[in-house]
Specification:
mainly alpha; Arc Repressor Mutant, subunit A; two-stranded antiparallel sheet; about 10% strand; globular; cadmium ion sensor activity
Length: about 110
Amino acid sequence: MLTLAADIEVLARFGRALADPIRCRVLLALRKAPTYPADLAEALGISRTRLSNHLACLRDCGLVVTVPDGRRTRYELADERLGHALDDLLAAVVAVEADKTCPDADEKGCC
């Protein structure tokens, strides 16, 4: 069982990961199915370099893992419960007020 301080750190890390729209898109894509970086970059319409930076952040946060697959590396959520948490979070936010924007939306930061 985690301590309150550890719980707060884990939630803050998750929040920082979700603070970037590209990282949100990556997590939402990976909740559907594991995938390869080249395929993910194409699906999201971003460069592989830019995606690589975001995947590194998500990996460092402990939210995604790499799985060797022959000469390629596949990315997936670190735990299937993250996909369920994202679904629940989306449902909760939409239920509260989908038309609101965050005043800090322009600030960027990585975990």
